[in-house]
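Query structure, 263 C-alpha cells:
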C-alpha cells in the first residue's frame, strides 16, 4: 500500500470521483447469508488496522497527542455527527435506515459539551473552520443520506460501533495522558441502560435486519469502507494541522489541567 493509500487518499479533492468500493464486496445474497454486521467487520478489518495507526489517533493511543489536536479532531467530528444524525432522523420511517435511528447513541450533543470544555465555549469552537478533510467527510455523509439514505448505515456502523469499542480505550488514554476530565470525554460516555457489549450485539442485530430491508446491502459495505478512509484522511489532516509551524491560535484549545504540548 502506498503512503498515499495509507493516508486514506488525503489529497483527494471531494469533486473527484470516489473510488469504486463495490469491486471488493460480496453480492447482496451472500451478505444476507453471513450477516451484514459480520460482513462489515470482515471487509473493514484491514482498514481498521490502518485507522488505528493513522495520524492523531495513533498519537493519542501512544500518549503523544495534544489537547489542541484532540480539540480539532472533535471540532471536525462534530460536523460529521451532526450531518449523520440529521440524515438518520430524516430516514427514521425507512424500514432499513430507521433501525439505526437510535438517539441513545447520537453523539452531536455530547460533542457540543466536549467542545465547550475544550475551547472554553461552543461559539469559540464552532468559529474554528473545518479542515478540508472534515468538509469532505461531511459532504460524503450528506451524499449518503440522499435517495433512500441506506448508505448512512455504513457511516453509522463505522462511527458508533467504533466509539462503543476502541473509543473506550481512547477515552481512558485521554484521561491518563492529557488529563482530560469526563467533561471533555462525553463522546465516549454512552448513556445506555445495558452493558456496552450487550448493546453492541443489539446494534449488530439491527444492522443484520436492515440488510433484509434493502436491495443494496453491498452499497452499505462500500460506504463503510469509504467512511474508514475518510476517518483516516481526517486523522492525518488533524495531525498535520496541529503540527504545522503556523498553527492558527484558534485551534490552540483553552488552558486546563492537561499536559499536552499545544496548550
Ligand atoms: C486506537 C484506536 C482503536 C482501538 C484501540 C480500537 C479497538 C477496537 C477493538 C478492540 C474492537 C473490537 C471490539 C469488539 O469486538 O467488541 C474495535 C471494534 C471496532 N472499531 Fe476500533 N479501535 C480503534 C480505532 C478505531 C477507529 C479510528 C475506528 C473508525 C473510525 C474504529 C472502528 C471500529 C468499528 C466499526 C468496530 C466494530 C467492529 C465490529 O464489531 O464489526 N476503531 N475497535
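Result returned for the query:
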Amino acid at each position: 500500500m502506498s503512503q498515499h493509500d495509507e493516508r486514506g487518499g488525503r489529497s483527494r479533492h471531494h469533486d473527484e470521483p470516489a473510488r469504486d468500493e463495490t469491486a471488493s464486496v460480496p453480492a447482496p445474497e451472500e451478505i444476507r447469508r453471513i450477516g451484514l454486521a459480520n460482513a462489515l467487520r470482515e471487509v473493514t478489518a484491514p482498514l481498521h488496522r490502518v485507522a488505528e495507526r493513522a495520524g492523531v489517533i495513533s498519537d493519542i493511543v501512544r500518549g503523544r497527542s495534544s489537547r489542541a489536536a484532540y480539540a480539532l479532531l472533535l471540532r471536525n467530528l462534530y460536523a460529521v455527527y451532526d450531518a449523520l444524525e440529521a440524515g438518520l432522523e430524516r430516514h427514521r420511517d425507512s424500514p432499513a435506515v430507521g433501525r439505526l435511528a437510535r438517539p441513545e447513541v447520537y453523539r452531536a450533543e455530547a460533542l457540543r459539551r466536549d467542545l465547550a470544555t475544550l475551547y472554553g465555549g461552543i461559539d469559540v469552537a464552532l468559529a474554528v473552520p473545518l479542515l478540508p478533510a472534515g468538509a469532505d467527510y461531511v459532504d460524503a455523509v450528506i451524499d449518503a443520506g440522499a435517495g433512500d439514505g441506506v448508505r448512512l448505515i455504513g457511516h453509522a456502523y463505522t462511527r458508533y460501533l467504533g466509539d462503543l469499542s476502541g473509543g473506550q480505550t481512547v477515552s481512558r488514554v485521554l484521561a491518563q495522558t492529557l488529563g482530560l476530565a469526563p467533561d471533555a470525554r462525553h463522546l465516549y460516555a454512552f448513556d445506555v441502560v445495558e452493558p456496552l457489549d450487550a448493546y453492541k450485539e443489539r446494534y449488530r442485530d439491527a444492522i443484520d435486519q436492515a440488510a433484509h430491508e434493502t436491495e443494496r446491502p453491498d452499497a452499505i459495505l462500500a460506504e463503510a469502507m469509504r467512511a474508514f478512509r475518510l476517518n483516516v484522511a481526517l486523522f492525518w489532516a488533524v495531525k498535520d494541522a496541529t503540527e504545522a509551524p503556523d498553527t492558527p491560535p484558534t485551534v490552540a484549545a483553552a488552558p486546563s489541567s492537561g499536559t499536552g504540548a499545544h496548550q
